[in-house]
Specification:
Elements (H helix, E strand, L loop, with lengths): L1 H16 L16 H18 L6 H15 L4 H12 L2 H22 L1
């Protein structure tokens, strides 16, 4: 289940990236580095997978946990959104992040076994 939402996010990002000319993409001032972006996205993916199993008060818990996740990584929601948009317009960089996310999630999954 967790990989489905993850794949949808990246598929949308890759599709959007095909519509942009790489020369017109402006790098945000507070761009999150690729490695950190991969860690954050993997944390969001795992959070979403966990939240899919919780039905009661999902919206409240979901927003609280996301705020905590931003705080944990010392970033703002705006910084994350701008960085995600930037990387979604750069297919090669987004692919590298996606590969890192898969590795991180696989490592965490293997630690739980």
């Amino acid at each position: 289940m967790q990989m489905k939402s993850y794949n949808v996010i990246f598929l949308c990002g890759l599709l959007l990236s095909a519509c942009y000319n790489e020369k017109t993409i402006q790098k945000p001032e507070n761009l999150i580095e690729q490695e950190k972006m991969a860690i954050i996205i993997s944390d969001f993916t795992l959070l979403e997978a966990t939240m899919n199993t919780v039905a009661a008060n999902r919206a409240l818990v979901d927003s609280t946990l996301k705020v905590n996740l931003f705080d944990e990584h010392k970033i703002s929601q705006e910084q994350f959104s701008e960085s995600l948009l930037y990387y979604s317009k750069k297919p090669e960089e987004m692919k590298a992040i996606q590969e890192q996310v898969i590795e991180i999630i696989t490592e965490k999954k293997n630690l739980k076994k």
